[in-house]
Amino acid sequence: RLNYDDNVKTFYFTNMTPQNGELNDGVWKELEDKVRKWSEQFDTLYVVTGCSIEGSTEVAMDNDGKAVTVPVGYYKALLGYSKAGSVGIASETGGYTGCAFWFDNKPYSGGYMDQAMTIAELEEKVGLDFFVNLDPAVAEKVEKTQDSWWK
Predict the structure, then answer these.
(1) Which residue(s) pair with 50 in the sheet?
(2) Longest Cα pair distance anywhere in the chain, in angstroms?
(3) 11: which residues sit within 8 A by CB, 6+ positions away?
(4) What is the pTM of this model?
(5) What is the mean pLDDT of the chain?
(6) Is 69 exposed, middle or buried (0-12, 13-18, 19+ CB in 10 A)?
(7) Mean pLDDT of 107-119
(8) How far, in Å, CA of 47 to CA of 133, rounded?
(9) Which ranges constitute the DSSP H helices of 9-126?
(10) Sign of the dihedral through C-alpha 116, 120, 123, 125
(11) Which residues does residue 99 pair with via DSSP β-bridges, in sequence order?
(12) Cα 12 from chain centre
């Protein structure tokens, strides 16, 4: 996508969402960079990223002039697996630990950890069950624990 014309063709909201520029270039970018570093600590790191349009009243126009709903917020749910059980609460949960984040679609002055929450809290906020294949006993502990390892 080094060619300008080819690159512009990717700027449709089917391929992205209208995220606040200061959020995208700030704390959201910092979190995405940190997720890449965290991934090096696990055998597997599952990352669920999404947005919510529930209650949105704003729209943005795409390249064809079509209105697209602007999300009210963005989230990440992380589930790490360490075979050795050496990360955070993983020694108590069969190798798993997790963390979640929610950001309203606006600029932030604090760090990404200011927006950290349990996976269970995020699931309740967005109405989704992110890790449905996780053993229920493990999910109970992992999804309801704010593991200090992620800080």
Answers:
(1) 75
(2) 52
(3) 62, 63
(4) 0.90
(5) 93
(6) middle
(7) 97
(8) 14
(9) 21-25, 27-39, 119-126
(10) negative
(11) 78
(12) 21
